[in-house]
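Data card: per-record layout.
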Amino acid sequence: MNEEERVIKELRETVCRLHAELVRGELVVWTAGNVSGRVPGRDLFVIKPSGVSYDDLTPESIVVCDLDGDLVEGDLAPSSDTAAHAYVYRHMPEVGGVVHTHSTYASAWAARGEPIPCVLTAMADEFGGEIPVGPFALIGGDDIGKGIVSTLAGHRSPAVLMRNHGVFTIGKSSEAAVKAAVMCEDVARTVHVARQLGEPVPIAPGDVDRLYDRYQNVYGQRSHG
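The structure for this 225-residue chain is written out next.
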């Protein structure tokens, strides 16, 4: 096994494992949703095959596609969202992972076409502001990918609510994109509950900036050489 084959094998294993996190977080039902990951240094990514049960996913069933969304390696047809993932990878070279879910609360905001306002410190930390809404787009071509890229370009949020559809998240890795999807659903639920009680109190933009900077650059463990 050469180095590229080893990298792809490990990425398939990682992406297969991360689909279980979508189930654990109750972000998906049946065969909906998907995780993909960019192959470092290559114009390739791996993604869930279309219509395969999460219980039946194996690393070997995860397929490899090029950045046009065409199948390169694997025995199964790629996800129906493959074109959207491919468009993101082509136009956002910093992105290493993409996730799509129809998680209940976040998708409810998407159904209303309303951004989730930044009224929680956890939102400021992870998303750097509101979670924006992208345009309505039909599945299959580049329209969803175009909507994701145009909405997130210049935006700190790694999540977008595609109107009448669901959630797409991006990250430097597949793991980071899954985390963003989990966090997106969590804050969507909490802000929904807050609105049942009254009008949520916004966080001042300057405080959002400070919270985001701290979380992105200070929070957690840092290596010391």
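Known properties of this structure: The radius of gyration is 17 Å. The beta strands are 34-38, 44-47, 63-66, 71-73, 97-101, 133-134, 159-162, 166-171.

See the next section for split statistics.
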